[in-house]
Design goal:
The chain has about 290 residues and is of the alpha/beta class. The chain contains 10 helices and 9 strands. Helix 1 packs across helix 10 and helix 4 runs parallel beside helix 10. Keywords: Metal-binding, NAD, Transferase, Zinc.
């Protein structure tokens, strides 16, 4: 009588070397948008990245152009439902499994979707903030995005525009026809009674808070290795941690489908989809 056939081992170039590195423990993970694409949130720069069809909101436009800010919030009001409804994928769960196994010590994410935490990870440093919070530009009050959504629903009972392409952008908004924007009513901060609200994320052109950057550097400095997951490392915001690790002699592994800016700094390079690599990696190391 035959037994149950074991699932075949995934053969991916570089996976054995990655498993050896992660198996040594004390790993710091640096994750990017490529980790969340399997959850329905597009990245910026991949083959189908949102930058090919969408100009992301900038700090300068949001803070200096009331019309631009109004446009963002109208589009974000619609897009928030997709962000809030996104669920962690197998990659997020695998990272959490490796963390719970004591192999991953710290997680630094460039993502703003909260899916690491939803997938079971703890002690996640959100380098670029989180879409699940808002901050008042006048008084600095931080509040749950869900509370704002309730207020916006009350202020916009008939606002139900159809997105132009139906796909949410990484910064939480969707494309809407210009004709729909005038019908949207934005609300202000309840604490100070008039301050404009902003999602608690770092927009393009905005500086990541220095204490947050230092916390990430501290994690890298104390790590045995740095593993980059799903980031092209195009912007210095994430690439600087690879540079620091390489300078300090800390091994760097990069797992990404497609080339990255940090490939020449990598000791281990795996060019494959994260949804294929990470579950296999976690399965090997938790046996």
């Amino acid at each position: 009588m035959g037994g149950v056939t074991a699932a075949p081992t995934v053969v991916v170039p570089g996976l054995d070397e990655l498993a050896a590195l992660v198996g040594d423990g004390n790993v710091v993970v640096l994750s990017g948008a490529g980790l969340s694409t399997d959850s329905g949130i597009p990245d910026y720069r991949g083959a189908t990245g949102s930058l090919r069809r969408h100009t992301p909101m900038t700090w300068q436009t949001f803070t200096r152009d009331p019309r631009g800010r109004h446009r963002y919030w109208a589009r974000s009001f619609v897009g928030w439902r997709q962000i809030a409804g996104a669920r962690p994928n197998a990659g997020h769960r695998a990272v959490a499994e490796l963390q719970h196994a004591g192999l991953v010590g710290g997680i630094v994410t460039q993502n703003v979707d909260g899916l690491h935490q939803a997938g079971g990870a703890t002690d996640v440093l959100e380098l670029h903030g989180g879409l699940d919070r808002t901050v008042c530009l006048q008084c600095g009050d931080v509040a749950p995005r869900a509370a704002l959504d309730v207020r916006l629903r009350e202020a916009n009972p008939g606002f139900r525009p159809e997105p132009a392409d139906g796909e949410v952008n990484p910064d939480g908004d969707v494309e809407l026809p210009e004709s729909a924007l005038d019908g949207f009513v934005m609300v202000d901060c309840l604490v100070c009674g008039g301050g404009p609200l902003k999602p608690d994320v770092v927009f393009f052109g905005e500086t990541v808070p220095a204490d947050r950057v230092q916390s990430a550097f501290d994690l890298v400095r104390c790590a045995r290795s740095l593993v980059v997951l799903g980031s092209s490392l195009t912007v210095m915001s994430g690439y600087r941690f690879v540079l620091r690790a390489a300078k300090d002699g800390i091994p760097v592994a990069i797992v990404n489908a497609g080339p990255t800016r940090g490939d020449e700094k990598a000791d281990v390079r795996v060019d494959a989809p994260l949804g294929r690599v990470l579950p296999e990696l976690a399965g090997r190391l938790s046996r």
